[in-house]
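W.,

You were right to be curious about this one. When I first looked at the sequence I had no strong expectations either way, so I just let the prediction run and decided to look at it fresh. Below is the sequence, 128 residues in total, followed by the output.
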Amino acid sequence: MTLAERAMQQLEGWRDLSAVPASCGTGRALRSTHSEIVHFHSDHDVDLHLTVGAILRFHHDLSESTAIRIIPGSRWVTVHLDCETDVDLLLSLVSVALKAHAGGPPSGSPPATGCNFHRVTLVPRDGD
């Protein structure tokens, strides 16, 4: 079982998430009642839907991680799963995302853009 499959299996057990096809058309997604939270695009690449506030609040920590890719202007971050620690990071960030989206989108906020799947270029790491 791949790291992404293991993470997906764990997250499917969370009562606030349900499995759906990814709205971007690639892979599977998990959504809350308010929005899609996570897209599993491949065995290693996952897009996570955070709010602008959450990204700003955790920007320094996110940018320090070798597993995280941040695209300026996007409400999604890409998590590259290479090891169990990356899966743990993803699970923690999904919890952050669920809390950030708990009340639904703020009134007057612009609609969220699509995930980062076609906006991120990932260079394979050694051993991939």
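Here's what jumped out at me. Residues 65 and 94 are 16 Å apart (CA to CA). And, maybe more interesting for your project: The mean pLDDT is 86.

Coffee later to discuss?

I.
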